[in-house]
Write a structure and sequence with these properties.
It is built from 15 helices and twelve strands. With about 375 residues, the protein is α/β, with parallel strands linked by helices. It has three domains: about 80 residues, no CATH class; about 190 residues, Rossmann fold (3-Layer(aba) Sandwich), CATH 3.40.50.450; about 55 residues, Winged helix-like DNA-binding domain superfamily/Winged helix DNA-binding domain (Arc Repressor Mutant, subunit A), CATH 1.10.10.10. Strand 7, helix 10 and strand 8 form a beta-alpha-beta unit. The longest helix has 16 residues.
Length: about 375
């Protein structure tokens, strides 16, 4: 049984929602493991019961299952903040985000979730952006939102802020979606606190982390995959080489989404990232018309408008593996990430069996998952 169909209604029941939260907040249960556990066991309560057995098979001790009392307090805090949960597999969950291989099992949101169901474009860029780039991003976002397209960004300084400000105040058309790295009640950077509240009231605010979570460096790549995953395409306005914006662009490409960039002067280091993206195949953008032309073919009813994400696995639910299966798969793993598809080919085992072994190893803390459907031994 998958996390769709009858599970849509099950996730709306308080008891099952609580069990799902406990599963999601359990150490070692990432997005892929969560989806596979529900696919194999049918519901979160059965998956929770199976965790110790699976972790032992993977060579680890029993996982630290989230306490029910702690999860209840989290849910109460979410309600007190005027926020709510969107579970993967329910109709309210952003449809494009549900297509990525590591879609967050649950989101905490404030605002109008319908904005994430409309055509969306991510606009990201440098925190220390030039005045000209901020003006361009603000105007571009305003025009795109005026065409009924939601503008998605990360509420950071610079280009992100300009994009959100430009998209706000478009009545009856598009709006803005902000994805933050910390909890729904934590403003970062602090000077964007008022803007964050305005987005929650007039647009949509999304957090993956529980309330009260202060953003850490490791949270930002997770946030970036949501920004690109919600969107049909990602536009980088200004970025230095090796910036977070380029990570978002790379994730968009891995997710099968459009990657766009605004060209800049080769004399300005803040344009190096965008110029490099264009050199490597990103679409050059000079106006909102360029952006809308790319995503409009994807905006029709029933069309998600994306290519298949790289590395995505849509096989049967995991099934039991033998000790020989575990030895064969584990022997192929190392510190360098390798695609699951390659493991399946080299192990000579059915995909469902390989997925079971990886699930057990992940729950035991012995395997890490990476973007693009790749895995490696844990450091």
């Amino acid at each position: 049984m998958s996390d769709h169909g009858s599970n849509d209604e099950r996730a709306r029941r308080p008891a099952d929602a609580l069990a799902r939260l406990r599963l999601i907040r359990t150490a070692g249960v990432g997005p892929v493991a969560y989806a596979q556990l529900l696919a194999r066991f049918g519901n979160a309560e059965a998956a929770l019961d199976a965790l110790p057995r699976l972790a032992r098979r993977g060579g680890g001790g029993p996982p630290r299952v989230a306490e029910e009392a702690l999860v209840r307090r989290e849910a109460e805090r979410v309600g007190a903040l005027g926020a709510r949960y969107l579970f993967l597999g329910t109709p309210e969950y952003p449809p494009l985000l549900a297509e990525i291989d590591d879609a967050p099992p649950v989101l905490v949101v404030r605002g109008d979730e319908a904005l994430a169901a409309r055509p969306c474009v991510a606009i990201v860029g440098a925190r220390n952006a030039s005045a000209a780039a901020c003006r361009f991003a603000r105007g571009l976002a305003h025009e795109i939102a005026g065409e009924g397209v939601s503008v998605v960004s990360g509420l950071a300084r610079g280009i992100d802020t300009a994009a959100h400000v430009g998209a706000l105040g478009i009545d009856g058309a598009g709006g803005t979606v902000a994805v933050i790295a910390g909890g729904i009640d934590v403003a970062y950077p602090p000077e964007n606190g008022a803007l964050q509240e305005q987005v929650a009231e007039q647009g949509l605010l999304i957090a993956e982390q529980p309330p009260g979570t202060e953003p850490r460096a490791r949270h930002f790549p997770y946030r970036n995959r949501i920004i690109s995953g919600v969107s049909s395409g990602t536009l980088v306005v200004e970025a230095v080489m090796k910036s977070g914006s380029l990570i978002t662009a790379r994730l968009a490409g891995e997710q099968g989404r459009e990657v766009m960039a605004v060209p800049g002067s080769p004399l300005d280091p803040r344009s190096a990232g965008c110029n490099g993206l264009i050199r490597d195949g990103a679409t050059l953008v000079q106006s909102s018309a360029d952006v809308l032309e790319l995503i409009r073919p994807f905006a029709g009813p029933g069309s998600v408008g994306v290519r298949a994400p790289l590395g995505r696995y849509d096989g049967p639910p995991p099934e039991d593996a033998s000790d020989a299966d575990r030895r064969a798969v584990t022997a192929l793993l190392g510190p360098v990430p390798v695609s699951v598809d390659e493991l399946i080919r080299q192990a000579g085992r059915p995909p469902a069996v390989v997925q079971t072994v990886l699930l057990e190893l992940e729950l035991a803390g012995r395997v890490e998952r990476h973007a693009g459907g790749r895995v490696s031994l844990a450091a």
